[in-house]
């Protein structure tokens, strides 16, 4: 399995999340939640990390943080090991608690921080765990929404200062959370190349300063990022390689056989390049967001199971013609 691309530098900001192994619970008692927060405080001090927001759900967690040193992987490895040890001892378990390596999204600051904090804090509502966020104890929302709950290791000033000073900032933050309307279009749709959330200038800066010029076969996200391609031109080029008509794909109510295979391969490769999210992919091919997602899943399932046939043949043919290494 290809390893995830990690970019680390002093002052880097991340949205970090991890799930329980096989989606099993990572919290089974109040003490588990308390231990998690105690370790967050210790990690903040031990590794010089600023924590801006968090939410602890039943089988996963979200963090918004900044590393003052280039040490995210080292800090999260310590954190995951420390929490797993405590959890297993208390709950008479052994083995892995988390599902593989943690996921990290490199985040631009300012408005992106604000939007992510809203997304993170809305998790209990989306999951149907509470009707009002003020009822949920295990997130940093109460520290952002009410002056009475402040944690010494949690930095709320950076985000709240964008709204004003004093009591007014708390009220305005409550309003922003309640009016947050990006639920249907998940924040993940705006993540580029699987690991960067920010403006085009931010993405360009990261590419120029922190990515090597060569491609690493074990880092498919890096290969994607190095391919500065216009999506419309890329579609046209892939259609020529596969000898198919994109306009026919858009107009046809239902595609069968070879046409279906070619369209699905083009959608999958566009998704891998990371230039468009599923919503945009669907619009380009006359599909809904969920239909585009199913097309991607179909091709990825075929490739994962190493099935021979036209889908795999078209997929490899296009990548080869585009100069992408297998």
Classified by CATH, the class of the largest domain is: Alpha Beta
Order of strands, widest sheet: 2-3-1-4-5
Please state the second-level CATH architecture of the largest domain: 2-Layer Sandwich
Helix coverage percent of residues?
Answer: 40-55%
> What percent strand?
5-15%
Number of alpha- plus pi-helical segments: 15
Reported by name, the CATH topology of the largest domain is Alpha-Beta Plaits
Tally of DSSP β-strands: 5
Order of helices and strands: EHEEHEHHHHHEHHHHHHHH
Cα-atom Rg, whole angstroms? 22 Å
Question: What is the average per-residue confidence, as pLDDT, rounded to a whole number?
Answer: 86
The shape is globular
Class from secondary-structure proportions: alpha+beta
Under CATH, the homologous superfamily of the largest domain reads Transposase IS200-like
Cα separation of the termini? 14 Å
Number of domains: 2
How would you summarize this macromolecular structure in one to three sentences?
With 326 residues, the chain is α+β, with helices and mostly antiparallel strands. It contains 15 helices and five strands.
């Amino acid at each position: 399995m290809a390893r995830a691309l990690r970019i680390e530098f002093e002052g880097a900001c991340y949205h970090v999340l991890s799930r329980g192994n096989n989606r099993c619970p990572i919290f089974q008692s109040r003490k588990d939640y308390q231990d998690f927060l105690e370790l967050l405080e210790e990690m903040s001090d031990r590794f010089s990390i600023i924590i801006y927001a968090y939410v602890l759900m039943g089988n996963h967690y979200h963090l918004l943080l900044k590393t003052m040193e280039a040490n995210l992987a080292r800090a999260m490895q310590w954190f995951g090991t420390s929490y797993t040890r405590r959890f297993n001892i208390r709950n008479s378990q052994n083995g892995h608690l988390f599902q593989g390596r943690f996921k990290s999204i490199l985040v631009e600051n300012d408005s992106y921080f604000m939007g992510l904090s809203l997304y993170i804090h809305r998790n209990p509502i989306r999951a149907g765990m509470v009707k009002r966020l003020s009822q949920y104890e295990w997130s940093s929302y109460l520290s952002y929404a009410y002056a009475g709950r402040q944690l010494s290791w949690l930095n709320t000033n950076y985000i709240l200062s964008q709204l004003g000073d004093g009591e007014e900032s708390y009220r305005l933050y409550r309003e922003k959370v309640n009016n947050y309307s990006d639920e249907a279009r998940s924040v993940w749709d705006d993540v580029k190349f699987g690991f960067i959330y920010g403006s085009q200038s931010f993405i360009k800066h990261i590419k120029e300063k922190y990515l090597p010029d060569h491609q690493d076969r074990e880092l498919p996200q890096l290969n994607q990022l190095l391919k500065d391609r216009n999506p419309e031109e890329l579609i046209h080029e892939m259609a020529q390689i596969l000898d198919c008509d994109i306009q026919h794909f858009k107009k046809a109510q239902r595609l069968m056989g070879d046409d279906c295979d070619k369209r699905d391969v083009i959608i999958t490769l566009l998704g891998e390049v990371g230039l468009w999210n599923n919503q945009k992919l669907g619009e380009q091919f006359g599909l809904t967001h969920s239909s585009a997602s199913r097309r991607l899943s179909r091709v990825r399932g075929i490739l994962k199971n190493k099935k021979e046939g036209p889908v795999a043949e078209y997929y490899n043919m296009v990548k080869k013609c585009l100069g992408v290494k297998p």
